[in-house]
Input
Amino acid sequence: MSTRRFDNPDLDLDIDSEVAEPKLYKVLMHNDDYTPMDFVIFVLKKIFGKSDSAAHEIMLDVHHKGVGLAGVFSFEVAESKVAQANQFAKANQHPLKTSYEEES
Output
């Protein structure tokens, strides 16, 4: 395999140096009247990597405000975490709903 050098000053590379930051998405957990608080904390720790205290605080937001912010991620990560959380809740027979929305 040969190595070629591309340091020719005659090459005109008109490259736009601006790169747009990727959009971020909020992952939200929604309150229901059936999912136990301990299960919500478990999901926050297992899927979202939250500490005990952070998971407890988010769970209280879900319980008292109707929704809690589980995290902010790129689209692909948000989509994946929502799918994991919803599938895990369903597999454990809980109606816990997690969704994502674009961060403004």
